[in-house]
Amino acid sequence: MRNLILVGPMGAGKSTIGRLLAKELRLPFKDSDKEIEQRTGADIPWIFDVEGEQGFREREQAVICSLCDADGLVLATGGGAVMRPQNRQALRAGGRVVYLHASVEQQIDRTARDRNRPLLRTANPGQVLADLLAIRDPLYREIADVIIETDERPPRMVVQEILERLEALAPR
Ligand SMILES: Nc1ncnc2c1ncn2[C@@H]1O[C@H](COP(=O)(O)OP(=O)(O)OP(=O)(O)O)[C@@H](O)[C@H]1O
Ligand SMILES: O=C(O)C1=C[C@@H](O)[C@@H](O)[C@H](O)C1
Ligand SMILES: [Mg+2]
């Protein structure tokens, strides 16, 4: 195994589960959104406001490609990291890819209290989440080694299922 990479939509729990998984496996944890913020010296809403989504995606691609080059990381990605084919290629080559799935209803619940997601600063965030999932679900599936349902499951249970499913995989 190279890295263990979590993909999925906003509110699927990539950052939460990734941190727990890294602790369990005693591996370093990286979150591509946090890495973008650190390298930029600004938070994600600021990057969207000043540089636009395109500017953010450029930064995201640089970070995804460099983190996927590492070894032995647990990596939580941003929800839109699968949009660029170059990123999908880097993620696929970077290790085992786990798609954390969440229904739109659960995504709405889990993102409602947080103002840190610029794409959800709209009158109808539920519609945005539904539209994004329709576009991105096939892309998450395209690169996933395993798909894990997170609806109505506490983070600890999700972590256990990831570990079991990864153990059962044949080597690539
Ligand atoms: N399995 C779960 N059950 C209940 N709540 C969860 C679960 N996973 C995550 N959460 C909660 O949902 C919220 C969003 O989780 P998190 O930030 O980990 O999502 P994310 O996939 O990293 O989203 P983003 O793509 O925006 O970075 C957090 O408040 C977290 O505590
Ligand atoms: O789904 C998305 O496009 C995003 C998800 C977040 O993780 C951040 O990467 C950013 O808010 C954009
Ligand atoms: Mg996250």
Automatic annotation (TrEMBL):
One Gene Ontology MF term: shikimate kinase activity
Its annotated pathway reads: Metabolic intermediate biosynthesis; chorismate biosynthesis; chorismate from D-erythrose 4-phosphate and phosphoenolpyruvate: step 5/7
The UniProt record gives the binding positions of ATP as G11, A12, G13, K14, S15, T16, R117, R153
Gene3D superfamilies in the record: P-loop containing nucleotide triphosphate hydrolases
Q: What UniProt keywords apply to this chain's record, in alphabetical order?
A: Amino-acid biosynthesis, Aromatic amino acid biosynthesis, ATP-binding, Cytoplasm, Kinase, Magnesium, Metal-binding, Nucleotide-binding, Transferase
Q: Which residues form a coiled coil?
A: none
What cofactor does its activity depend on? Mg(2+)
Q: Which domain of life is it from?
A: Bacteria
Instruction: Please state where this protein is localized.
Output: Cytoplasm
Cite the binding residues for Mg(2+). Answer: S15
Entry's EC annotation? 2.7.1.71
- Chain positions recorded as substrate binding sites: D33, R57, G79, R136
- Pfam families (UniProt xref): SKI
Which InterPro entries does the protein's record reference?
P-loop_NTPase, Shikimate/glucono_kinase, Shikimate_kinase/TSH1, Shikimate_kinase_CS
Specify where it is mainly localized: cytoplasm
Reaction(s) catalysed (UniProt annotation): shikimate + ATP = 3-phosphoshikimate + ADP + H(+)
What does the entry's cofactor note say about binding and number?
Answer: Binds 1 Mg(2+) ion per subunit.
Question: Briefly, what is this protein's role?
Answer: Catalyzes the specific phosphorylation of the 3-hydroxyl group of shikimic acid using ATP as a cosubstrate.
Q: Which family does the similarity line name?
A: Belongs to the shikimate kinase family.
Subunit: Monomer.
| Record-linked NCBIfam families | PRK05057.1
Q: HAMAP family annotated for this entry?
A: Shikimate_kinase
Give the protein's recorded name: Shikimate kinase
Which organism is the protein's source?
A: Phytopseudomonas seleniipraecipitans
Q: Which gene encodes it?
A: aroK
